[in-house]
Predict the structure.
Amino acid sequence: MTSLKKSARSATAKKAETTATNVSITKQFTDQRDPYYVPDQSDINKYYDEVYVPAQEGATPEQRMLTDAIFIQKTRMIPSTVKNQTNAYILSGDPALIMQAAQLIDRVDETPGMFDQITNTQTKAFASNMVRLMEVMDPKEALRLSQQLTDPADQNRVTARRNQIKTEKYSQKYVDWTRDIVGESDPTSFQNAANQYQTIFESYYLAGSDEDAARAQAEKMIQSNYTQSIFGDMMYAPEQYYAVNGSVEYMRDQLDEEIRAEAPNIQFDRDNIYLLTDDYTARTAVGSAPQYRVLILDDDGVFQQRSGYFVPDIAAQESKLRAETETLTQELRTEDEQASVSYKRQQFEEKQAAYEDRKGKPRKAVPASELYADTVLSDSRKIVADVAMGALKARREVIGTAVDAIVGVGEQIEKAGKRQRSKLLEDIQEREAQDNAFC
């Protein structure tokens, strides 16, 4: 296993990120609320022009290039504005713009299934040559030479290179160069990778790139799209496009069911189902939905190829997982409720047992003399007697004082009464004397 092979783990994360991005874009410009709906080119163009571009106002060309690359990597679609602008930059003759366009193309090419999608082979070959030559010569000279190398009218060069490919047996070189990238792997998958390498190399070599530049393009394409899979190391592995909850094992289940329904007489093990890729797979991968040929190794050791192309039913798998999740959630909820009832019942039974235990064994009364022994309350009888005697004495004092007060008041009343009676007698006698005088 070489260090250049990529695992499907990162592809799963990218798939989830792409889905989230597409949902966000779709909600802003359509009535779609389906989380698995994929926006079309018009949705992407509208979002990019009306939302994404205004948000980048004031950004430097380098920043714009990076954000455009991220946008394309997340949505796996290229806005028309970006494509037109990139091609215009390449043909502008301005070294700075050509460099910016070349960097964007390079980043987009690293996205699985997006190789050669932002511009055509000839234009990219021109940009590649321009960038490479500007490192060693004046930009104007690099521009002139790049135009000469990629001139479609230069049929003599194209013919000469085709002959070179045949006479120098490049077909064997392709095998060796591919092995340097992917190492030893399944023969069928390896041959598919070698065929893809040949296609990319020759398209660039014949378009005007030199051998090293053409090899670099082919190597980048293989590294981006040749990854590990449960179906074996392969180009456009389904883990990069069809993973559900991080797995494509469900594809084996779907294939196994379909093949046995179509050909019940074929005896095979489900682990002996293989996916094959070809040029059609590469074209369909551009739209993030690659289609695969299917190969079955039967129990007799004979390979049998299924007709047509296979595309997994990802919606059915997602629906199945949702149903299973709902069922599991309900089961867990029921178990939690049952566990809660059981726990509460256990608590009640424990409390009831404790109550019955207490009721059956009443607490023993403890005399106060024992309870308060060796405390300030230990001689309680003496304290109570002292308190009672003090209260009685205080009461007697209060009563004596009250009696004295009452007696004193009575004496004063008696004296006042005597004075009033004496004066009344005097008044009566005085009136009688007056009455006799008038008579």
